[in-house]
C-alpha cells in the first residue's frame, strides 16, 4: 500500500521557546546549587571559590527561570489558579509548589551567605552603602547552622524541581520521543554540564580567574559527559530491538528529516569536541587560559539538548504524515523571548555584581584590593 | 455483560502487546498521573460516537458545521476529515481513505490528569471538557493528547477541543457534525442504554470496530466501522498537501496561516 495524504490540518507547536529557556535556566540553577554544596554548605576550603561562583549562578538563574515559565503560559495573569485549584494528579501542579519553595530557599541562602560581606560596606556611600545597611537586616553575624539548614532545604527542594521537570515531560506517552525514563537522566546530566560551564564562564568574566575552581569544573564536565554517553548508550541499547518507543521514533526522525539529521550530527560533534577539549586541558595545563570557551560550549550543549527535545520533538507529527513545519517566530514567542530572557539574566547578574560583594563571601579575598589574588594563573586577557 | 465494560475488556485485550512499551506507567503512577474523579454530567449515561466509514464521502460538511457552531479560529479544528489517496502496490488501483477525527472522549484520557489546575476534566457521562475560565493556557494537555485533538485557541488563549457539542446535547439536539453528516456516518448516543442506535450497532459490529492508537491504552470512545488497521496509528503516507512548492522552494497554498 502506498498512500498520499491529501487533507490534514497543520498542528502548530504548543510549547514555545520560553519553555526551553525555563528548562535551561532551572536546570542550571539546581545543578549550580549542587556545585556550591561542598564549598558553601559543608565549608570545604578547596571548593569555596567554586562555591562562590556557583552560588551566584544558582541565585541569578533561579530568579529569572520562573519569569520564563510564566511567559510560556498563554494566560500568565491566571498563575494564581495553580494555587487556588491545585490538581494533585498533575506533575506540573506539584512543580508549581516545588518551584517557589526552591527559588525562595536559594534566594535566602544567597542572602545569608552574602549579608556578611555586605555588612562590611555599610559605611560606603551611595546606593551600595544604603543597600549594605538595609539588606543584611541587622549587624548580626550569619550563623553557620543557618547556612547549613537553609542550604540543605534548598537541596531538598532542588531535588523536587529536578524530578518534576523530568517526569513532567517523560510521562507524556503521546510523544514517544519524550516517553522514556532516560530523558530525566539526560536533563539532569546536561544540566550539570551547563552549570559547570556557567561557573567557568563566570570565573573568567568576573575576573576571579580562580584556577582551582576552573579545574574542578572541567572535571565535572568530563565526568558528566561520560555519564551522558552511558545514558545515551543505555537508551539506544534498550530501544534498538523495539519497533516502537522513543529510540524507534528518534531513528525514524533522523532517517526521514534532514533537519533532524543535521541536529543529531551537531549534538554529537559538540559533545565530542567538548569532551576532547576538556580532556586535553586536564592533561596540558597550558591550554587552561581558554577554558571559558569550553564553558560556553558546555552551556551550548545544555541549551541545545533542551531545544532539540522540547522544540524539535514537537515538529514530529503524531497523526499526519511527514513533519510539522516550525519556523521560529522573530517576536516575543521566539527569538525576542530567547534573547530577552538571557538579557534579563545578564541584568540580574550585573545588578548582584554591582551591589553584592559576593567575591568576598565565605572568607574570599577581594581581588580589587589584593591584586595578588589572581596570581597562580597567568593573566591571559 | 454491560456494554461499556465489554468494550473496555475488548480494547484491553488488544493493547496487551502495547503495554510492554509503557514502562513509565508503573514507575510514575503512585497517585500522580492517575485519573482524578469525574465531575458533572449525568452518571447514568456514557456518550460515545460510532463513525461508519463506509458511509463517509469526505465532504467535510462536519468540519464546516463544527467550525460554524463552535467558532474555532481559522486553521484550527475540533474535527476534520483526514483524506489520503491510497494505491495498491499489487494492482495499482487507487482509492480514497477518509478518516474523520475528533476528540475520542477517552475512558482513560491522558489529557485530564496532567492539567495542573483541573480545568480539563471528564464528566460522569464520559465527555471530556475544558473550563476555559479556569484554564491557564499551559498547553500541557495539548502535549498529552496522542490524537492531536486539542489546540490552544488564540482568541481565548485557552485549551480548546471537541465537547461532543455538550451544549447541544443538553438542549436535546445532535452535535453539529452529526446533524450535518450527508451520509449519516456519525452516530452518537448513550452506550449505557441498550436500546440506543449506537448500542445496537456496537452489538452488531462488535468484532469489526476499531479505535485509534489502541496501544496508547487510552480507551477511546469514538469507534470506527469499516476502518483499515493500517490507519489506526499514524499512517505511513507521503505528505501531499504541504509539499506544494513554487520554483524557489517556497511552500504554496497555505492561506490560513497565523494572521
Ligand atoms: S482524544 Fe485527546 S483530548 Fe480527547 S479525551 Fe482522548 S486524550 Fe483527551
Ligand atoms: S492548557 Fe488549560 S486545560 Fe490544558 S492542561 Fe493547561 S490549564 Fe489545563
Automatic annotation (TrEMBL), chain A:
What keywords tag this UniProt record?
Cell membrane, Membrane, Transmembrane, Transmembrane helix
Coiled-coil-forming residues are: none
Compartments where found:
Cell membrane
Predominant localisation class: membrane
Q: Name one GO cellular component term.
A: plasma membrane
Q: Does the keyword Kinase apply?
A: no
Q: What membrane topology term does the record carry?
A: Multi-pass membrane protein
Source superkingdom: Bacteria
List the Gene3D superfamilies hit by this protein, alphabetically: Formate dehydrogenase/DMSO reductase domain
Q: Does the keyword Membrane apply?
A: yes
Q: Which Pfam families match?
A: NrfD
- Residue stretches spanning the membrane: 20-41, 53-71, 91-114, 145-165, 185-205, 217-237, 263-285, 292-309, 335-356
What the record says about family reads: Belongs to the NrfD family.
Instruction: Write down what this protein is called.
Output: Tetrathionate reductase subunit C
Amino acid at each position: 500500500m502506498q498512500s498520499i495524504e491529501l487533507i490534514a490540518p497543520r498542528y502548530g507547536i504548543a510549547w514555545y521557546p520560553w519553555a526551553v529557556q525555563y528548562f535551561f535556566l532551572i536546570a542550571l540553577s539546581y545543578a549550580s546549587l549542587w556545585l556550591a554544596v561542598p564549598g558553601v554548605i559543608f565549608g570545604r576550603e578547596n571548593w569555596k571559590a567554586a562555591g562562590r561562583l556557583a552560588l551566584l549562578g544558582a541565585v541569578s538563574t533561579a530568579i529569572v527561570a520562573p519569569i520564563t515559565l510564566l511567559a510560556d503560559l498563554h494566560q500568565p495573569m491566571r498563575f494564581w489558579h495553580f494555587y487556588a485549584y491545585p490538581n494533585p494528579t498533575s506533575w506540573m501542579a506539584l512543580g508549581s509548589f516545588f518551584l517557589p519553595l526552591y527559588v525562595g530557599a536559594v534566594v535566602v541562602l544567597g542572602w545569608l551567605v552574602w549579608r556578611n560581606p555586605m555588612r562590611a560596606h555599610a559605611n560606603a556611600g551611595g546606593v551600595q552603602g544604603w543597600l549594605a545597611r538595609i539588606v543584611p537586616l541587622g549587624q548580626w553575624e550569619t550563623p553557620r547552622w543557618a547556612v547549613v539548614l537553609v542550604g540543605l532545604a534548598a537541596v531538598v527542594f532542588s531535588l523536587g524541581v529536578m524530578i518534576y521537570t523530568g517526569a513532567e515531560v517523560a510521562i507524556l506517552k503521546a510523544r514517544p520521543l519524550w516517553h522514556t525514563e532516560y530523558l530525566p537522566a539526560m536533563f539532569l546530566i546536561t544540566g550539570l554540564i551547563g552549570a559547570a560551564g556557567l561557573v567557568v564562564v563566570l570565573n573568567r568574566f568576573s575576573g576571579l580567574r580562580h584556577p582551582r575552581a576552573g579545574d574542578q569544573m572541567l572535571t565535572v564536565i568530563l565526568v558528566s559527559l561520560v555519564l551522558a554517553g552511558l545514558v545515551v548508550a543505555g537508551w539506544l541499547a534498550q530501544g534498538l530491538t523495539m519497533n516502537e518507543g522513543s529510540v524507534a521514533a528518534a531513528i525514524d526522525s533522523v532517517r526521514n528529516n534532514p533537519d533532524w539529521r543535521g541536529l543529531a550530527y551537531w549534538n554529537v560533534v559538540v559533545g565530542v569536541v567538548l569532551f576532547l577539549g576538556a580532556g586535553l586541558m586536564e592533561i596540558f595545563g597550558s591550554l587552561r587560559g581558554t577554558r571559558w570557551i569550553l564553558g560556553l560550549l558546555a552551556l551550548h550543549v545544555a541549551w541545545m539538548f533542551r531545544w532539540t527535545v522540547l522544540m524539535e520533538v514537537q515538529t514530529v507529527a503524531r497523526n499526519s504524515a511527514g513533519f510539522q513545519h516550525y519556523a521560529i517566530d522573530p517576536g516575543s514567542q521566539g527569538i525576542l523571548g530567547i534573547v530577552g530572557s538571557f538579557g534579563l539574566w545578564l541584568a540580574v547578574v550585573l545588578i548582584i555584581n554591582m551591589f553584592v560583594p559576593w567575591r568576598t563571601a565565605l572568607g574570599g579575598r577581594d581581588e580589587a584590593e589584593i591584586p595578588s589574588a589572581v596570581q597562580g594563573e597567568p593573566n591571559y586577557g | 455483560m454491560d456494554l461499556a465494560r465489554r468494550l473496555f475488556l475488548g480494547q484491553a485485550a488488544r493493547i496487551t502487546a502495547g503495554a510492554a512499551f509503557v514502562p513509565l506507567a508503573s514507575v510514575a503512577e503512585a497517585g500522580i498521573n492517575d485519573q482524578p474523579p469525574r465531575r458533572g454530567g449525568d452518571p447514568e449515561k456514557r456518550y460515545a460516537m460510532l463513525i461508519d466509514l463506509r458511509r463517509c464521502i469526505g465532504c467535510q460538511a462536519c468540519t464546516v458545521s463544527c467550525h460554524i457552531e463552535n467558532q474555532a479560529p481559522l486553521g484550527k479544528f475540533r474535527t476534520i476529515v483526514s483524506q489520503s489517496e491510497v494505491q495498491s502496490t499489487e494492482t495499482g488501483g487507487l482509492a480514497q481513505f477518509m478518516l474523520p477525527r475528533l476528540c475520542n472522549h477517552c475512558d482513560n484520557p491522558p489529557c485530564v490528569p496532567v492539567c495542573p489546575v483541573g480545568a480539563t476534566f471528564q464528566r460522569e457521562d464520559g465527555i471530556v471538557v475544558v473550563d476555559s475560565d479556569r484554564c491557564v493556557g499551559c498547553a500541557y494537555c495539548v502535549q498529552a493528547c496522542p490524537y492531536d485533538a486539542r489546540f490552544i485557541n488564540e482568541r481565548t488563549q485557552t485549551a480548546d477541543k471537541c465537547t461532543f457539542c455538550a451544549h447541544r446535547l443538553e438542549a436535546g439536539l445532535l452535535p453539529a457534525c452529526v446533524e450535518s453528516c450527508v451520509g449519516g456516518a456519525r452516530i452518537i448516543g448513550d452506550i449505557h442504554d441498550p436500546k440506543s442506535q449506537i448500542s445496537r450497532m456496537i452489538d452488531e459490529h462488535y468484532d469489526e470496530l476499531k479505535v485509534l492508537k489502541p496501544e496508547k491504552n487510552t480507551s477511546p470512545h469514538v469507534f470506527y466501522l469499516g476502518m483499515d488497521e493500517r490507519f489506526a496509528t499514524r499512517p505511513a503516507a507521503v505528505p501531499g498537501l504541504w509539499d506544494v512548492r513554487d520554483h524557489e522552494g517556497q511552500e504554496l497554498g497555505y492561506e490560513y496561516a497565523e494572521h
